[in-house]
Amino acid sequence: METSAPGEERHRGTIEVRSLSKVYPSQDGPVQALSEVSFAVADAEFVTIVGHSGCGKSTLLRIIAGLLLPSSGSVTVRGRGVSGPLSDVGMVFQRPVLLKWRTIFDNVMLPIEMLHLPRQENRERALDLLKLAGLVDFRHHYPAQLSGGMQQRAAICRALIHDPSLLLMDEPFGALDLMTREEMNFELLRIWSQRRKTTLLVTHSISEAVFLADRVIVMTPRPGMIADIIDVKLPRPRMPETKLDPRFTECVRMIGRKIGLLYI
């Protein structure tokens, strides 16, 4: 009989992952990236995924987005099976991947063009998103004229422009310096609190995972399996002093121990 992942029953909704496995062929034989991964994410929930490098976190995100096919198992998004790229998903990668010859505004509008949606109707949405991200005054600038953090904010706006139900983020702040990364954590939470998109974010930072999330999915080393799913019992909105809360510290330590890191 199929069993549910920890906490899955009360979190059914936007995403359901069932017994997901992924095997890659290689010259040295098959490499199993994921094994029997099952979990669910509720509507408007913010979930983070942590684990060692190579444990299949990015592979998992790409399968959910429909960019990769699983070897076995299934993914459903809002009750529909995923078998190819989804138009109802916004994706943010580690680097902004903005087109250098397009202005920030035109970069944000790119999904509208690719999906053949009405440009004029979505122009105001783009301006609203840029205003929300503090970039409206830079909409006519080119990517090279903006800092790394500002470029990543533009990438988040681009991911949200077509109003997807699901936001997938793969190490979106990994290339930023520590101070900018901290600022982007608050920026992301501010945007999420207003847009309330179901969000799944991959990170190598345990403290970042805890600070952002309602729940943290902890993965084992390859082949990636679910070691545990941790509820983050911290109030929202999250503030700088949240990191001084003993519950925050204990949650970080607990996850560190599950991953195999030493936390005193």
Taken together, the total number of domains comes to: 2
Structural class: alpha/beta
What assembly state would you assign to the polypeptide chains in this entry?
A: single chain
Which architecture of the largest domain per CATH? 3-Layer(aba) Sandwich
Strand content: 15-25%
CATH superfamily of the largest domain: P-loop containing nucleotide triphosphate hydrolases
Distance between the termini: 40 Å
What is the approximate shape? globular
Number of strands: 10
Structural write-up:
With 264 residues, the protein is of the alpha/beta class. The protein has two domains: 1-87 and 165-175 and 184-264, 3-Layer(aba) Sandwich (Rossmann fold), CATH 3.40.50.300; 89-163, no CATH class. Helix content is 32%, strand content 22%. It has eight helices and ten strands. A six-stranded mixed sheet has the order 6-7-8-3-9-10, with helices on both faces. A four-stranded antiparallel sheet has the order 2-1-4-5, with helices on one face. The chain starts with 14 loop residues before the first strand and ends in a 5-residue tail after the last helix. Mean pLDDT is 89; it is low at 1-11.
Give short descriptive properties of this protein.
single chain, 264 residues, alpha/beta, Rossmann fold, 2 domains, six-stranded mixed sheet, four-stranded antiparallel sheet, 8 helices, 32% helix, disordered N terminus
